[in-house]
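Subgroup meeting minutes
Present: P.N., E.W., G.H.
Scribe: E.W.

1. P.N. recapped why we're keeping a running log of single-chain structure predictions: easier to compare across weeks, and new members can see raw inputs and outputs side by side.
2. G.H. added today's entry (121 aa).
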Amino acid sequence: MRISKILVLIFVLMFSGCNTPTTADERVQTQEAIVIKKGYEGTWPFTVDMAVLKCYRGYGTDAPVVVLNGKPYGLTGAADIMYGQSDTSALNPFWRKSAYGLRVDLHAITQDALALCKKLL
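Output recorded in log:
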């Protein structure tokens, strides 16, 4: 009898707060923009000609994401875990290589995505 009360107490403590409403600060906001290879300033880093850049703001972080062929890929490790494929190598088929066999730098496209978060309140 005593063990079942302890188990019930543990169960209640584990699941208490699961339906707690989020505050305005905890809501995730997003902003997005379409970018096209032809009009992009700088080196285009992808093997496809169009991408959707997104930035998610919430839970104390900005998460830059690129959507290629309908699938989201985080441009940072945290963004990939939260909104992408949870596998940083998943982007590789779409990530272009330079003439030297190295991957094209994603810094500019990541900064473009992060700039979208600055438009959010």
